[in-house]
Amino acid sequence: MTDASHFKCECQHCHGHLECPVEAAGQVIECPHCGQSTELPGLAQPPKSSGTAKRIIFVSFVIALIVALVIWSTQHAAQTARLRQEAEAAAQLAAQRAADAEARAKDPLAQAGWKISPIALEKTPGSTIIHATGTLINETDRRRFGVQIKLDLFNVVDQKIGGANDYQAALEPHSRWQFSALVVDAQAVTAKVAAVEESP
């Protein structure tokens, strides 16, 4: 009876059956049946253990999984950062709008439909004449008549020292008026709106 340590073959001359140890594969022996020299066949190499192939497949799978996780993690982090930035920007915009709305609600000029730019004191080149200049916007849908802007003037220590005003006969809906109020006090360094009045 053969096992894994032996193999069967036949004599090349008499075709008698032979049973030989695997170590004898490929050797020339004397046939016990006919006495002639016969060459034993070489055995095919036993297949390599499939364990190595399985390990290669497993390692490849693990590497592919790690790469996929790294890619997903990077994309997820980038998406999370982008969503966080968008949320922060939206929150800042909402906060700014709320602050603007609150400031507008407390501003009597805004409630009356006026919007005014920052006011600058400008000296006329080559003279000592100073004007308080800025822009007044009629934000309403109606024409406004006899518009007068009144300004308070302040010195370097923010003490009120006088006033200035300018007049516009009419201001169309959603139009801008570039006012220029004469400042007679040379100590004035800033100006603030005291009132905007119009004819009834």
Number of strands: 11
Total domain count: 3
Helix content: 25-40%
Q: Can you tell me the CATH topology of the largest domain?
A: Immunoglobulin-like
The first-level CATH class of the largest domain is given as Mainly Beta
The whole-angstrom Rg is 51 Å
Main beta-sheet strand count, sense and barrel state: 4 strands, antiparallel
Discrete helix count: 2
Termini separation (Å)?
127 Å
Percent of sequence in beta strands: 35-45%
Mean pLDDT: 88
Order of helices and strands: EEEEHHEEEEEEE
Write the layout of secondary structure elements.
Layout: E1 6-10, E2 17-21, E3 28-30, E4 37-39, H1 50-106, H2 108-111, E5 114-116, E6 120-123, E7 130-138, E8 144-154, E9 160-171, E10 176-183, E11 190-197
Antiparallel strand pairs: 1-2, 3-4, 5-7, 6-7, 7-10, 8-9, 8-11
Q: Top keywords for this entry?
A:
alpha+beta; 3 domains; four-stranded antiparallel β-sheet
Describe the structure in your own words.
- With 200 residues, this protein is α+β, with helices and mostly antiparallel strands.
- It folds into 3 domains: 6-39; 58-106; 113-197, Sandwich (Immunoglobulin-like), CATH 2.60.40.
- The protein is built from 2 helices and 11 strands.
- It has helices at 50-106, 108-111, and strands at residues 6-10, 17-21, 28-30, 37-39, 114-116, 120-123, 130-138, 144-154, 160-171, 176-183, 190-197.
- Strands 5, 6, 7 and 10 form a 4-stranded antiparallel beta sheet that branches.
- Strand 3 and strand 4 form a beta hairpin.
- The longest helix has 57 residues, at 50-106.
- The protein starts with 5 loop residues before the first strand and ends with a strand.
- The model has no long low-confidence stretch (mean pLDDT 88).
